[in-house]
Design brief:
Layout (H helix, E strand, L loop, with lengths): L14 E6 L5 E6 L2 E3 L2 E7 L3 H8 L2 E6 L13 E8 L2 H29 L7 E8 L3
Antiparallel strand pairs: 1-2, 1-5, 3-4, 4-7, 5-6, 6-7
């Protein structure tokens, strides 16, 4: 299968989300992604590097990958525009979309993360990703 549109990537188990530093350097992070209407959603703790980079430059690239961030051999990279949504309701809606897609894997990961963070739940934000214009 070859994903050709941004929304097609919502079916992929992992996507390499590439953000850009101020100097233009690419930074790729493998993420879980889910389709939510006309856009894709990612959840991440507030204040992460990708959140800061998106605030400075909303251009992103998405590439199907494995859990370690290695692009799949057939992978096509798709450009998009990301927007960080900090409202609790939007973060929760994105969390529910991810939870519905990944089910038990999501629950296990979140439980392990909670233990690793000594039972402290980080504030999470939603990242909405839409196709690039033109």
């Amino acid at each position: 299968m070859t994903a050709t549109t941004l929304l097609d990537l919502g079916d992929e188990p992992y996507v390499l989300l590439t953000t850009f530093r101020r100097n233009g350097e690419r930074v790729g992070t493998p993420v879980w992604v889910a389709r939510d209407g006309d856009h894709l959603v990612v959840i991440t703790p507030a204040g992460t590097g990708k959140v800061k980079r998106i605030a400075a430059n909303p251009a992103v690239e998405l590439t199907p990958c494995d859990r370690r961030g290695r692009p799949k051999p057939w992978a096509t990279t798709v450009a998009g525009r990301a927007e960080v949504r900090e409202a609790a309701a939007e973060a929760e809606a994105a969390r529910e979309a991810i939870k519905a897609k990944y089910r038990w894997e999501f629950r296990i990961f979140m439980a392990i993360e909670k233990v690793a963070r000594r039972m402290k739940e980080p504030q999470r934000v939603a990242v909405w990703i839409r196709p690039s214009e033109g």
